[in-house]
Amino acid sequence: MANVVEQMPATHLNHQGTHFRPELITPKAESEDFGVVEKPLTQWERIADNNVARKVFILVLLAVIWETYARAIHNQLLFPTFSDTVEALVQGITSGGLLLRAWTSIKVLLMGYAAGLFLATLLTIFAITTRFGRDFLETITSMFNPLPAIALLPLALLWFGLGNGSLVFVLIHSVLWAVALSTLSGFQAVSQTLRMVGRNYGLTGLRYVFGILIPAAFPTILAGLKIGWAFAWRTLIAAELVFGVSSGSGGLGWFIYENKNELNIPSVFAGLLTVILIGLFVENFIFRIIERNTIEKWGMQG
Fold first, then answer.
1. What is the pTM of this model?
2. What is the DSSP string of 10-26?
3. 123 is in which domain, residue-wise?
């Protein structure tokens, strides 16, 4: 911002003999920046501030590292290149076999996840409304939560036989305890002020749970839903590997196992990549929409 500076005039003596200096007026030139409160971001700054762009950059970086390492070891049976894996993925999608396997896994997952959420909701409501229910949930959660779901597969085979019933059983175990424990912890962390507000409005029972506790504890509940989803997804893939050996059918787990037996390693990695892509979609799209319309909308996240 340029200033027009005039020559400093000489000082003069007033009638009392003291020096004084006349006022100096420095007019300011017009500037385009005058009155600008916020500086516009550059193109690079806008890209760096975009959450999706940053995550895409991370994925591209990982793909480059994958491709570089695979070309360095140069052994398709141990570690195929990223380009070969993408080619096998495209072939699996165009043939329809990979999509069919993925849909089979997703259908079973949805059944087990929904059943697990339903049971977790009942147990948590029981724990919140009664003291005995809280003690019961804490005890049974500490007993079964550390137990790996895949360890229950032998029992599931004996009780439900080969089929979706056994898969749903282990999925319920994966989802139930994580979601119930997170939900109970969120309810217990609700402040006494909100609890008193609910009581002052005369809310009791289910109205108290759905009107006060669930909205206040929803960030913790959502975290439990994410953990339950991750547990269920990886348990399903592992269980399908076992069921694939037993019955010759299944979803993505069986697709991976079948191609491993045929030494089609790029297709094995394509199946694993499909598992990863589905996980990324659920985490960054479905759960992100839920978070945007609840936690962020309610001002519960900075």
1. 0.76
2. PPEE-TTS-EE------
3. 89-293
